[in-house]
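Hey Z.,

So I finally got round to the pyridoxal-5'-phosphate thing we talked about over coffee. Here's the setup:
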Amino acid sequence: MTETFEFATEAVHRGETTSEQQYLSADVVSPIHLATHHEMEAPGELKNGYKYSRFGNPTRDALESRLAHLTGGSEAIAFNSGTAAITTAALALCDPGDHFIAFDGVYGGTRLLLEDLFRDVLDVEVEYVDARSPETVEEHVREDTALFWMESPTNPLLKLCDIAELAGVADAHEVPLCVDNTFATPYLQQPLELGADVVVHSTTKYLNGHSDSTGGAVATNDPAIAERVSTLQEYVFGNALSPFDAYLVLRGMKTLPLRMEQHEANAQAIAGFLADHSKVEEVHYPGLESHPQHDLAGQQMDGFGGIVSFELEASEAETRAFIEELEVFTVAVSLGGVESLVDHPWTMSASFISPEERRAAGVSDSLVRMPVGIEDKTDLIQDVEQSLSRM
Ligand SMILES: Cc1ncc(COP(=O)(O)O)c(C=O)c1O
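And the result:
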């Protein structure tokens, strides 16, 4: 495919380049290439572009070409988890002893890796700031600041940062801006177009969309960054996505636009229902006018996404009971699959950071996170209603 098409067309077709890749059987979907090494034309001379699967694999290449197109990057690199993508991207952009500025709302796992590897091993000073204000980020910039690590919306509190404004601050101080776009997906938000230097995704979530593949991606328009990330992947960590997982994400991404529309319609309906309920203290969903950054979400996103979190007027025990009484929502961590899930961040997705840090990050024991699936919204609302009514 040489021309560039609209998002939904690219999501279906990009990477399925049977003629370019000269598959003998002219498959309409990319086959799963399992070979770990490829015959050479002559010693030191590649036959068909491939040598060893840690350096390149046709199924992974098909996915990377689609990821690059859909994220607006010149290059995309697929990893065996979102965590691997984050670690490798951040490592590519720093030297030991540097200073990082990270959004104080980032996913707990990201916070953990920033501390366990970057702070404790590489002596990187990581400062967490309220990046809802670009001015606050700018106030913390120092000579040795090497990276802005942002996430928008954040997990689990759905806080936003103004990516275009932060890109301006980043440019002025020559600091690369990296955005974790997992919650929004490239369908709803394009950080590279808004000025970010690097975008990362956990493909485990919406991009794959079916809760059956762990993966991640880094995309950028900067060839030097891409080169460094690839080198770390190929020669240091060996953390590339497997061919089977690449196939699953290629398949999942074909329906990303359709799924995101349905996730969002359902999330908006549930958020509206919860906002009017007397047992709910506060709802965090950028699609509600009451969300403090609703206008920013309207500007920088093409929709508000599929995740709703909310505080119940309840004790921890009552919150847990509410979660356990749900029938359609499955109690599980993760998000982005077609099925609706319910998470108690205090004891589940954020449990691996200390209670003090959880509280400081605004995660209380009565917080509930709902990655809303694509089921019928009447069933979802009825389920939430029946469980709230038992409280
Ligand atoms: C926003 C965000 N980024 C990154 C990750 C890590 O991705 P993975 O679990 O694929 O390593 C997660 C996982 O929940 C996440 O929510």
